[in-house]
Amino acid sequence: MVRRTLGWWILLLALVMPEIAQAHSMYQSSVLLDIHNNEVDVEMQLPSSRLGDVLDVAINSTTLATQSDRIRAYCDARLSVKDTHGTAWKLGKVSIPEWRMIDGTPYIVIHLIARAPNDADKRNFILDDRIITERLRSHAVLVTVRSDWEGNVFANNPNLVGIITGDEQTLAIDLGPGSWQRGFGSVFRLGIEHIAQGTDHLLFLLALLLPAPLCHLGKHWESHASVRRSSSQIVKIATAFTFGHSLTLALAAFRVVHVPDRPIEILIAFSILVSAIHAVRPIFPGREAAVAAGFGLIHGLAFATTLADLGLQGWERLQGILAFNLGIEVMQLVVIACVMPSLVLLSRIEFYKAFRVTGALFAIAASSGWMIERISRRSLGVDNAVNVVAVRSAWIAMLLFLTALILYTAKRQKDSQPASSL
User: Fold this and answer.
1) Which of 65, 103, 308, 323 fits as disulfide partner to 24, beta carbons 3.0 to 4.6 Å?
2) Does a structural domain hold residue 422?
3) Reported pTM
4) Count of the separate structural domains present in the chain
């Protein structure tokens, strides 16, 4: 009774303080469940000291290979999954044990796949885990759903579902109703939030948009372009950027390419700097779409880092890439729709040059600061300065449109008045 009460206290603390559930101690195991359509990937993290105690053998990184078969057989005989009617799920072979340091503590990590019977409720099952707890009754096993696409659970925010102890060696797991739309919708919203909160991605997009309603003459921006030409230019830039980041997002998500985060972040800041300089003075006129595609490749690698944190696999990963990309595109279109009408109107008046240069200089200052920060790994407070503007972006966009409308209307009225005769 005392042990059971202790187990419930541990569960209560883990639910109230999620960080406790994610932290390890040398006296507990973890079972991490990755839920798929008709199977569950099971990862078991077993403290080497406790596992060695129950097997009466010293287990360390050197002796692990010689004890591999024994560990696999021991775990295979003491773990089972069944549905609520008692029908056993089919368990795959236990993987070769892996030595891993987790939070400074040595663990033995093994994997297996549990497949549900065809007619079973795949989201409602019972886990029976007697590994270590069979002999060490006080041992605790934290059971966590690490990812569940249909249940809207991802690796960056896992869900503790219960605790197994020597007194309670079975755990009923009810995942609740699930559908692919829940996971798709959640990752779609993540794509929207990534752009909405990603000030560097937004600043890059805005820097590209600043000269979009203009025509260039040599090394200078001159008269405004027609609405049709401006719209065509914007579509080309947005499409090219989408193609670029979609390509590298997919390649990185499927681990075809991998680039460390730091160089990517530096190159993103560089992309803003180049685009902002172009907004002041054309350095790649007529090739904006090609440049957007090239820099899109870099931004896609940064997007992939966010997607990788979700821990998606197989078909779910493909759905996640699609949902995340759609979220990014929707938010980009919202930004373009909010900003571009104002830029087109302002480009018809002389005020636009001052506005364009001011905006570009802001982007140059921010991107230069980011590059210095990311190269030197020292904070200059650039994020704080940019966020002062970013948190007011909706109001700024509204004020910009009203200003553009008033100034453009005033210019039209002035131009429509007949010249006074002398």
Assistant:
1) 103
2) no
3) 0.80
4) 2
